[in-house]
Amino acid sequence: MGPRLLFIDDAGNLVAGWRIVWADWAVHARSSSFFAAQTQFNLNNPIFAGTEFRYPYISAYLSSLLQRLGLGVAESLVWPTLILLALLPALLYLTGRRLGLNRAAAVLAVYLFLGAGGGGIAAFFTDLLQGRWFWQAGPFAPRLYTDMEPWADWPNSRIWFMNFVSAEFLPQRAFLAGLPLALLVLYLWRSRSMVGMESIF
């Protein structure tokens, strides 16, 4: 996955390297490039002329600043996403510790939050072991393994329970920016009220 969430191929095409990215990130790409082209900040809608932009814009605005610094559209969307995804487990852990969880419970909470998503992992390994989709098993997987609906023969089929990373954090860049900020505020708030207590580590 990584930097190839969205990239320019050798022919100059903008390519979505992950299933969930192709729809949502088209809007993010347009919004960020619109903001980057403006001489002053405004909230005009980049898609529907003459209307106000009501979508959460902070992540698009951040990407527009990176574009003004010289990054391409794809890089300006990918790098903030990767950095925030890398910070998220630590923030989840620290917040769990500040809320009173012991180390093991905080690690388990992070694992359950980021790794939840039904039994689709079993279908992923079944496909790998049977030699299906081997080369596409990573970012170009032909199935969305965290969404169990397509497999009627699986015990938890018809359960639409998707993983947070693939269903929310990757496509919904505003959510990915907002959750770490909210966790940081919660962590700092709890830290002030717990001065002198046991170390979080």
Folded structure, characterized:
- This protein has helices spanning 21-37, 58-68, 73-98, 103-115, 120-129, 164-169, 173-193, and strands spanning 6-8, 14-16.
- The protein is mainly α and 201 residues long.
- It has a two-stranded antiparallel ribbon with strand order 1-2.
- α2 (58-68) crosses α3.
Write the layout of secondary structure elements.
Blueprint: E1 6-8, E2 14-16, H1 21-37, H2 58-68, H3 73-98, H4 103-115, H5 120-129, H6 164-169, H7 173-193
Antiparallel strand pairs: 1-2
Helix pairs in contact: 1-2, 1-3, 2-3, 3-4, 3-7
Q: Mean of the pLDDT scores?
A: 78
How many strands?
Answer: 2
Beta content? under 5%
Which stretches of 5+ consecutive residues score pLDDT under 50? none
Q: What general outline do the C-alpha atoms trace?
A: flat
Q: Helix and strand succession?
A: EEHHHHHHH
Distance from first to last alpha carbon: 30 Å
Spatial ordering of strands, largest sheet: 1-2
Give the helix level as a range of percent: 40-55%
Give the helix/strand class: mainly alpha
C-alpha-based Rg, rounded = 20 Å
> What does the largest sheet look like?
2 strands, antiparallel
How many domain regions?
Answer: 1
Number of separate helices: 7
Q: What are the defining features of this structure?
A:
201 residues, mainly alpha, 7 helices, two-stranded antiparallel ribbon, 3% strand
